[in-house]
Amino acid sequence: MAGVRPKKFLGQHFLKDQNIAQKIVDSLSGHGNYEHLLEVGPGTGVLTQFLIQQLQYQTTVIEVDDESVDYLKQKYPALPILHQDFLRTDLTILPNPLAIIGNFPYNISSQIFFKVLDHRNAIPEIVGMVQKEVADRICSPPGNKTYGILSVLLQAYYDIEYLLTVEPQVFHPPPKVRSAVIRLKRNAIQQLSCDETLFRRVVKQGFQNRRKTLRNALKPLNLPESIRQLSTLNLRAEQLSVGDFVQLTQQIEQSWKQ
């Protein structure tokens, strides 16, 4: 109900450190010349209070929790609030371009980034606080155990920066893990030089059994013999860069056309 601080919701831990909140907001660079911001999961508005001071941006928040929405309506009566689930929201009805910012709920943070990928040409920048493990995965270069599907797909379209490690004690309630703030800026690649649907399929299948070589991991794709003999398939998925995956996808495309 209005005026009552909302409870933890959807795995979210509310940030209480004002200095870190200010740092997160200050991390917005304006890359992509956007004027509109969408804050995902504002909770009690610790980021919101600084976002609405950024007069160069028009801020909208999206929150699914009833108590949080009531609290925000009372505290920020002029703030545009979407009372709905971000993962179910049609982002095409929102302004374009649109930057996204937030202290993302831990248990849906990866899904948030997959949704961003589906709308990548409309979202030039994302600044988000996530579980440190997720941040490490997204920022990881090839060859690391943390390098995976989300690493490759996001790095294909965004330049990614690890900005800040955040300790548990600055949240209420304190999580059992550390958090991190990352920033993603849309790169100049409007479209990969391969079939992007196939690219995503190859990446996902390659990491499905990441301990196997790609020759074994990609068996469900029923690749022709000419592809199965490629030296690249002697490697594991974590050893391939984004460019390597693009090249492999191109080779598979060409083999299927022959």
Order of helices and strands: EHEHEHEEHEHHEEEHHHH
Instruction: Name the structural class.
Output: alpha/beta
Main sheet record: 7 strands, mixed
> In the CATH scheme, what's the topology name of the largest domain?
Rossmann fold
CATH superfamily of the largest domain: Vaccinia Virus protein VP39
Annotation, overall tally of beta strands: 9
Placed side by side, the strands forming the largest sheet appear as 4-3-2-5-6-9-7
What is the helix tally?
10
Task: Give descriptors for this structure.
alpha/beta; 7-stranded mixed sheet; two-stranded antiparallel sheet; 10 helices; elongated; disordered N terminus
Describe the structure.
By secondary structure, the protein is an alpha/beta fold. Helices cover 34% and strands 18% of the residues. It folds into 2 domains: 14-186, Vaccinia Virus protein VP39 (Rossmann fold), CATH 3.40.50; 196-257, Helicase, Ruva Protein, domain 3 (Orthogonal Bundle), CATH 1.10.8. The protein has helices at residues 18-26, 48-51, 66-75, 109-118, 132-139, 149-157, 196-208, 214-217, 225-228, 242-257; strands at 14-15, 36-40, 58-62, 81-82, 98-103, 125-131, 158-166, 171-172, 179-186. It is elongated, with a radius of gyration of 20 Å. The N and C termini lie far apart (64 Å).
